[in-house]
Design brief:
globular; Esterase; FAD; Rossmann fold; flavoprotein; single chain; 8-stranded mixed beta sheet; alpha/beta; AB_hydrolase_fold
């Protein structure tokens, strides 16, 4: 039976500020119910060019609501890719080394729990898992990854688009911004916005059109319109903003290599870290929408197979029919189609996770 949304109302929220390892100011949003959490902390990590709020779409029951009601101490991480953080030309390496370890350290200190679970999405997933396999997140024992982990796979057409256009765009701008759909800034923004309007006729939301142009190929790219209620489709206008070309350059290199490639030269993150035996005992759950037009579901299948070589029968893979990239969290029916899967993996007894 579908729960009434009022069952999940009135959570307690607290913004917890912390500094990344390189001093960048970031924050966590802690969400708890009226009763004390009994299942420990779980952190939710957003993707690129959005913010922690992406897990709180205007649907009857969000994943945050679900986990709070289930007894978890929920933490939403705003890492350096967040649109609530000052714009910066971030890389996955910076987040893996500086952001996620400090976020987890903060959660452990504030809660007193020495184990944390995580639900991570897109480039929040890639950077978080990069940190985990490098041995930088020893307190994290379960990671549920959506869309992509360390083996990105895009369609050939999407890869070629990135390879050809990102170097060209780099001559005029250091970022792309779906907010141009609400008011273009400069000639380049006007041209890209006009192109989006001319080539995307699936809706009248220009921010939605620009999201599809920026993040891949599809009409739309990150979700199916039939999965979104009207309120959510309007809400996304203010949930997507600047994403730096530094990210796309790293992704092009990673797509070419077939795995995530660190680019900053940090000794903690050697270039082949994604190919080595993971320095963590965390169990990984890889999840992907079958209709994802940004990163193909094959991305998660490859990640699952790569890690299963070291611990057979330990990790899990779920390909979710009828869903794409972000509608697994924002879809109007996600509370009944997707969230039970996430809950089941979070609540799976520890003895079942033994290798």
């Amino acid at each position: 039976m579908r729960a009434h949304p009022e069952t999940y109302s009135h959570p307690r929220e607290e913004v917890v500020n912390f500094r990344a390892g390189d001093g960048k100011p970031l924050n966590l949003i802690r969400v708890r119910g009226t009763r004390a959490p009994v299942k420990g902390p779980v952190v939710l990590v957003h993707g690129s060019g959005v913010r922690a709020n992406i897990f709180r779409a205007p649907i009857p029951r969000t994943l945050v609501d679900t986990l709070v009601a289930d007894g978890y101490d929920v933490w939403l991480e705003n890492w350096r890719a967040s649109i609530d953080v000052a714009p910066n030309e971030w890389t996955l390496d910076q987040a893996a080394l500086h952001d996620h370890p400090k976020a987890i350290e903060t959660i452990v200190q504030r809660t007193g729990w020495n184990e944390v679970k995580a639900v991570v999405h897109c480039q929040g997933s890639t950077s978080f898992i990069l940190s985990a396999v490098a041995g930088l997140l020893p307190q994290v024992k379960l990671i549920i990854s959506n869309a992509v982990a360390l083996h990105p796979v895009m369609s050939r057409a999407t890869y070629l688009k990135l390879r050809e256009f990102i170097p060209l765009l780099s001559r005029w701008t250091s970022y792309l911004n779906p907010q141009w759909g609400l008011g273009p800034e400069g000639l380049l923004a006007q041209v890209i916005t006009l192109m989006a309007r001319a080539t995307h006729h699936e809706c009248d939301n220009t921010v939605c059109k620009l999201v599809s142009v920026i993040y891949g190929l599809g009409h739309p790219t990150l979700w199916s319109h039939e999965n979104l209620n009207p309120q959510t489709h309007d809400w996304v206008k203010h949930e997507f903003a600047r994403v730096p070309l530094s990210f796309f350059r790293q992704m092009i290199e990673s797509l070419r290599a077939g795995h995530t490639v660190p680019v900053e030269g940090y000794r903690e993150l050697p270039r082949d870290v994604a190919l080595r035996r993971p320095q963590t005992d965390a169990r990984f759950v890889f999840m992907a929408g079958r209709n994802n037009r940004c990163f193909l579901a094959e991305s998660q299948r490859r990640a699952y197979e790569a890690l299963s070589r070291y611990r057979r029968g330990y990790h899990s893979l779920h390909i979710v029919p009828g869903y794409g990239h972000l509608d697994v969290f924002m879809g109007k029916n996600a509370p009944w189609d997707v969230f039970p899967l996430i809950q089941a993996e979070l609540n799976r007894p520890a003895q079942e996770r033994s290798p």
